[in-house]
Recover the amino acids of this structure.
């Protein structure tokens, strides 16, 4: 166990934000979960009691008849904002006094940094470079993330859970978002920050960074395993595998939706459903491809003269 | 009134002066008294009333006016849902992100006084800031850490907006403005990374922009790129960097995007974002819970959540 190495990584000034983000995320997930749980209990209670549902004010916080529904922004909101501003300022001041922003040697194109890491918030994408070619990890994925986020309001047709925390009413959408945000984004950043060392190789926390370590990894392509040699056949084979994944996966998604989310499915148009299927399958494809690589050393699935996937 | 000279019907100069002095002895003390009286209640002065347009005694009307007649505060409505002020609902993250943006603008302007975006000067300017400029080090640190905090803030804000289902009708559009803000926040941070012109920034930006080489169609190493005549000297990466390597032009471009281009776009988007929060009926909740059986009934209007 090389504590010094571990300390070096955790205390690198530009890694501190991600070290801080982890407890912060845990705290806010807890806060959200607590409220979601309270609301879910209330919902269950109201669904079982029609009379109460008519009279209840439908929040988990107390409300007595005669209380005003609204409060003045001044002072009730402004004092909170003011307090928040002061607290943020103090945190920032203390942080800035105790920890210096990094400054390395002057830029030198002839002296490669090893590892050369992107800023921490992009490390998820850099980690994807291990499993995908740059045009996918660096261009297609960011584009799809942005478009995917933008279409969320238009493909989520579930009217429940608007304006309050809940889990039971939105299991699918919240589950999917958590998968995308926590597993595919935050976890990849954590790997990129704490685990990847020189040569972008995998070093467990506490393992010494060995700049001379070489790993002889023999990567194969999926068509090779099936003994396909001609370029044409490889291209067609890959197209079938990838196309098959989306077709078969699409069918599985349909089958699951119809069975377990019938109401949502009914509300969705064909376009909405198609986009949901496609985005969902693409998200799921990432860990699948990573698994292929890590477990079976498979580099490409689909090889063409112009691009490889 | 000085008396007329009986000879020619004119008032003598000396008499006039005497007369004025007499009058002054009465006028000035009276005015001085008035002035002192006035100072006892500054809220009655013209200067004061020209700035503050209403009284401040603690009445509901004045509390409302205090918000509504102030250009900055009237981002807010006068009154809001009593539960909407609960920290546990919004986590305050949108507001904190905005506050950090203001801090970044402020510290950023100060940094600009000491920084020249040229290969010769940039790195030295940062050294100078660190070692010679009074408070230069804390200035740079605050800018750096506030930038990181802002990225975290935007993520957490998006996370809570998602978890409260606040992107649902009628806030779909504002969610989209938000996604753009997220992208611009990351780009702001990224363009700033190169500016110290050190190894860290240089290699981070090199790694980052190398991916642009591989852009399909538009990058010289991307699928179909070379077929369309892309070379290292005319593809998107060249456009981003102003050259085929990260060098003086890239530094200047970064600087201009970082200090001028993106802040302007982001500010405009923030204005739209805040405007839409109000127009969409204030923040989404905490709204009364809805039951499964009510799902397909016509929706309650945005007002239901309280403005
Ligand atoms: C520079 C970045 C941003 C700033 C300064 C900002 C600021 C704010 C503020 C002050 C609010 C009021 C409520 C609150 O504080 O939670 C708000 C609400 C909202 N924001 Fe943002 N925001 C930003 C980015 C985003 C992002 C990335 C998204 C989503 C992708 C987003 C979506 C929304 C939505 C949908 C609302 C309405 C929420 C509701 O009604 O409960 N914003 N924003």
């Amino acid at each position: 166990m090389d504590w010094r190495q571990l300390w070096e990584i955790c205390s690198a000034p530009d890694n501190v934000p991600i070290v801080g983000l982890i407890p912060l995320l845990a705290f806010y997930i807890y806060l959200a979960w607590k409220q979601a749980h309270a609301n879910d209990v209330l919902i269950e209670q109201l669904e079982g009691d029609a009379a109460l549902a008519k009279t209840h004010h439908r929040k988990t916080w107390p409300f007595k008849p005669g209380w005003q529904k609204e409060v003045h922004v001044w002072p009730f909101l402004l004092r909170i904002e003011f307090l928040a501003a002061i607290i943020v300022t103090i945190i920032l001041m203390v942080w800035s006094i105790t920890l210096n922003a990094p400054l390395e040697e002057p830029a030198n194109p002839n002296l490669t940094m090893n590892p050369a890491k992107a800023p921490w918030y992009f490390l998820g994408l850099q980690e994807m470079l291990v499993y995908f070619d740059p045009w996918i990890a660096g261009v297609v994925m960011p584009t799809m993330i942005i478009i995917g986020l933008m279409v969320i309001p238009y493909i989520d047709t579930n009217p429940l859970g608007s304006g309050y925390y809940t889990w039971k009413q939105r299991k699918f959408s919240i589950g999917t978002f958590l998968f995308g945000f926590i597993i595919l984004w935050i976890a990849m950043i954590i790997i990129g920050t704490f685990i990847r060392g020189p040569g972008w190789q995998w070093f467990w926390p506490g393992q010494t960074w060995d700049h001379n370590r070489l790993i002889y990894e023999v990567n194969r392509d999926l068509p090779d395993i099936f003994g396909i040699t001609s370029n044409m056949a490889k291209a067609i084979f890959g197209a079938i595998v990838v196309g098959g994944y989306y077709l078969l996966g699409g069918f599985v998604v349909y089958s699951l939706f119809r069975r377990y989310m019938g109401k949502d499915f009914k509300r969705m148009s064909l376009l909405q459903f198609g986009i949901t299927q496609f985005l969902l399958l693409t998200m799921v494809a990432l860990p699948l491809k990573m698994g292929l690589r890590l477990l079976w050393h498979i580099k490409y699935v689909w090889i063409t003269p112009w691009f490889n996937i | 009134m000085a008396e007329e000279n009986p000879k020619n019907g004119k008032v003598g100069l000396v008499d006039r002066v005497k007369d004025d002095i007499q009058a002054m002895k009465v006028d000035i003390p009276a005015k001085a008294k008035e002035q002192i009286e006035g100072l006892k209640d500054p809220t009655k002065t013209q200067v004061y009333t020209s700035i503050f347009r209403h009284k401040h005694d603690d009445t509901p009307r004045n509390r409302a006016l205090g918000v509504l007649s102030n250009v900055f505060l009237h981002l807010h409505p006068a009154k809001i849902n009593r539960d909407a002020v609960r920290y546990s609902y919004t986590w305050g993250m949108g507001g904190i992100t905005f506050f950090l943006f203001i801090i970044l603008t402020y510290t950023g302007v100060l940094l600009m006084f000491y920084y020249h975006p040229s290969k010769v000067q940039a790195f030295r300017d940062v050294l100078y800031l660190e070692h010679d400029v009074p408070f230069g080090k804390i200035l740079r640190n605050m800018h750096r850490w506030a930038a990181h905090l802002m990225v975290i803030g935007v993520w957490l804000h998006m996370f809570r907006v998602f978890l409260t289902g606040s992107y649902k009708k009628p806030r779909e559009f504002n969610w989209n403005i938000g996604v753009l803000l997220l992208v611009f926040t990351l780009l702001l941070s990224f363009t700033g990374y190169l500016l110290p012109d050190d190894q860290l920034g240089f290699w981070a930006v090199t790694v980052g922009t190398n991916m642009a080489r591989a852009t399909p169609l538009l990058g010289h190493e991307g699928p179909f790129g070379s077929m369309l005549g892309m070379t290292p000297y005319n593809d998107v990466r060249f456009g981003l960097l102003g050259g085929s390597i990260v060098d003086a032009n890239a530094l200047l471009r970064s600087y201009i995007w970082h200090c001028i281009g993106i802040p302007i776009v982001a500010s405009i988007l923030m204005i739209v974002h805040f405007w839409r929060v109000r127009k969409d009926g204030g923040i989404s909740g905490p709204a009364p819970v809805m039951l499964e059986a009510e799902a397909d009934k016509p929706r309650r209007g945005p007002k239901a959540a309280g403005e």
